[in-house]
């Protein structure tokens, strides 16, 4: 049995349909899901850019490296300068990518 049993016919002109399709494309949602979300008052956000997943992976890697350096520093009381410089280089590279693409 269907969860949504009520059908509401909706007539749109060309301009309205074009705007709806633009919103569907930007949100990444299906047309029906977009309309349900709007009816329920959900704040709609644009779909993340294609480079978003790659950026998140890089940031996650940077955080993992920082955690490893902190663990070494806590265990042995020191971290080599090369590791610190590599972390700084990675942080700057990711910052540039965020700055240029967002």
UniProtKB/TrEMBL annotation:
InterPro entries: NikA-like (IPR053842). It comes from the Bacteria. This is Bacterial mobilization protein MobC. It comes from [Clostridium] leptum DSM 753.
